[in-house]
Amino acid sequence: MPTRTQQQPQGCLTVLLKLIGIDLGKGQQKHPYRLRDDFLSAAELSFFRVLQQSVKEDLVICPKVRLADLFMVPQAEGSQAWRNKIDRKHVDFLLCEPATMRPRLGIELDDSSHAKQKRQERDQLVEAVFEAAQLPLLRVPATRTYSVLEITEQIHLNLAQGENSPLVEPQFHQGVPICPKCGIKMVERTASKGTRRGTRFWGCQNYPQCRETVPV
Ligand SMILES: [Zn+2]
């Protein structure tokens, strides 16, 4: 199998200029980055292909999604500690709606490392995070082969469960609504564009991470 040779760090022009005493690279720091060959492990890639057959064009598959890009912690005392808990954690796969990229389902591929205690603690935390944010999470044990039909069924079952989350009516405190998602006071805003331009509404202080609104 042909392999790619390491790219020449210097172009022809750079070499020529160097010959006549001009060094463009002087004072410039060389960045040491190289492309990893293991973006997805063999097990992840094999499952990714099954997922592709399963969800087809209906959902977009995002591998290795950072939990901090998916979940937020509303600003409050001690919220940084909660943010730190998920700071360096990822979910193996995330399924999103194609038009809006709204997250619909997280999927964890459980290999043998999930039996280790440290990993189990991590798994429990991730499960709790998904549950708190009401995003369904599906755990699939890693195997040599998968049944596309079985995976498809499990995905649809979990998606349906996610849709059944009850709508929460906002509570008011001294006439100000409390964001039903974040539990903090909302602020009055005026729509600046769209068909509702000029309309006043209550919006969340965590906008754009939280887009909950309540009519004034
Ligand atoms: Zn909110």
UniProtKB/TrEMBL annotation:
Ranges where the DNA topoisomerase type IA zn finger domain occurs: 178-215
Occurrences of domain DUF2726 (ranges): 39-155
CC terms in the record's Gene Ontology section: chromosome
Signal peptide positions (record): none
Keywords in alphabetical order: Isomerase
InterPro entries (UniProt xref): DUF2726, Topo_IA_Znf, UCP028063_topo_Znf
Name of this chain's protein: DNA topoisomerase I
Taxonomic lineage from the root: Bacteria, Pseudomonadati, Planctomycetota, Planctomycetia, Planctomycetales
